[in-house]
Specification:
Blueprint lengths: L2 E6 L10 H14 L2 E6 L13 E3 L2 H8 L2 H9 L2 H9 L7 H28 L6 E5 L4 H9 L7 E6 L6 H4 L8 H7 L2 E4 L2 H10 L28 E7 L8 H14 L4 E7 L5 H11 L4 E4 L6 H10 L4 E4 L8 H8 L4 E4 L4 H4 L5 E4 L5 H12 L4 H15 L2 H18 L2
Parallel strand pairs: 1-2, 1-4, 2-3, 4-5, 5-6, 7-8, 7-10, 8-9, 10-11, 11-12
């Protein structure tokens, strides 16, 4: 019986964002594997309802939660893994935060190794009939890789997205603990964009044969968003209100567009939560000219977002992030046939182009965002770019097509090893 163990951050608990992708992916994994076991690192939020053919093993998160700090410290101090990275890169000693991350990473990898070994023994599972899949390229991937030294029949694959990929954007110094060792133990690593693939090949070329693109996707919403027909130009953005998303710059770009086109009415809705929501709402209220309005209602659920797109005309979607993997918010927008303005970072450059919107520079100014808004407003055939957005989704980001292909690829990796 072929068993798939899928290690997640929190899924099938709803405390994170993985549900957006994994709800659909699990459907296809169940069709290909005789047994699917979800192994969450954290039990955050409520446990989602799952098919009876999917198991959830909470003992892994219990093991991670239950480790005593003194035991964790001892594990680090007596770990060859910890000192291996420091000896290979002594400059890390100048960065206490990097050493702290390394220590936590080592503890997590060692606990994962111990859990996997215990799980195999307890369940009397033949490692030759298992494939281990980590949704993030983190300490779980390394820990499972360490088990392969004892059980080389194990097949190990991982996806890699954003924070677990682009070291320069997320960490000072740009460093991910024990990355080369983890790469040497993987069978396949699946970046979710061509940009991610290029990054890996450029930074870690020695393992290029193990990298493959595996695109994410969103399901067909079952409708196409309508354009505005009442003279108001409606703009939407959707993200957490964190600095990397540069929502304040979107706000300023819309203000500039409204000032430059005083005869045109604009309406902006930002869907997303964060500590700055009321601050940004106040800024929009006070700085927007009289021909424009800004609304920051927050985010409640994907269902509510899709209802918004079904019922609310939307003329353009904007993403101005500093860095991205493959942004689900942009995939959702194009699935509804909405044109997109986006910064040319990460997977944005693969979703957005002249056919369906405007691709800005990596660090667009508010005026550049305003110019892009006006170019969409003045576009002579908006139906063409709306149709092109929908086509981009159908060609590249259809969840059912992408996750079916990915499940089949995992089966092929397991069967080839036998």
């Amino acid at each position: 019986m072929t068993t798939l163990l899928l290690f997640t951050a929190s899924y099938p608990f709803d405390g994170g964002a993985e549900q957006t992708f994994l709800d659909t992916e699990i459907v296809h994994l169940r069709k290909k594997f005789e047994r699917v076991v979800l192994v969450p690192r954290k039990r955050t939020g409520n446990l989602l309802s799952l098919s009876k053919s999917v198991d959830v093993d909470e003992s892994y998160s219990a093991k991670l939660d239950g480790v005593h700090p003194l035991v964790a410290a001892a594990n680090v101090l007596f770990s060859r893994l910890f000192f291996m990275d420091i000896f290979s890169r002594p400059s890390l000693l100048m960065y206490p935060q990097a050493i702290k991350r390394l220590a936590a990473f080592v503890v997590g990898a060692q606990l994962t190794r111990d859990w996997v070994q215990d799980w195999i023994a307890k369940n009397k599972v033949d490692p030759a009939e298992c494939i281990f899949y980590t949704y993030w390229f983190d300490q779980a991937a390394l820990g499972i890789g360490l088990v392969k030294r004892k059980h080389p029949q194990i097949r190990l694959v991982s996806r890699v997205h954003g924070y677990d990929l682009y070291e320069e954007y997320y960490y000072t110094p740009p460093y991910w603990p024990l990355r080369r060792l983890a790469l040497s133990l993987l069978d396949r690593l699946f970046p979710d964009s061509e940009a991610g693939l290029r990054y890996l090949k450029g930074r870690y070329p020695g393992w290029a044969s193990r990298y493959e693109i595996a695109l994410l996707g969103v399901t067909d919403p079952g409708f196409v968003n309508p354009p505005s027909a009442d003279g108001v130009f409606r703009i939407v953005s959707c993200s957490m209100l964190v600095s990397v998303k540069r929502v304040d710059r979107i706000l300023e770009g819309i203000r500039c567009a409204a000032v430059g086109r005083s005869h045109q009415r604009f309406e902006w809705t930002h869907i997303g939560n964060g500590a700055r929501r009321m601050e940004l709402q106040k800024l929009a209220d006070e700085s927007f000219p009289s021909n424009s309005k800004g609304y920051l209602p927050g985010y409640t659920s994907k269902q509510a977002l899709m209802s918004f797109y079904r019922d609310t005309p939307t003329d353009v979607f904007i993403n101005a992030s500093e860095t991205e993997g493959t942004p689900v918010a942009v995939m959702e927008a194009v699935s509804c046939g909405i044109p997109v303005i986006a910064s040319s970072v990460g997977g944005n450059i693969e979703i957005v182009g002249e056919r369906n919107g405007v691709l800005l520079g990596e660090n667009p100014t508010p005026q550049e965002i305003a110019d892009a808004i006006v170019s969409i407003l003045d576009h002579p055939t908006t139906s063409d770019i709306r149709g092109a957005s929908r086509a981009v989704w159908a060609e590249r980001y259809n969840a059912d097509a992408n996750y079916k292909a990915f499940a089949e690829r995992l089966i092929a990796i397991r069967e080839k090893a036998q």
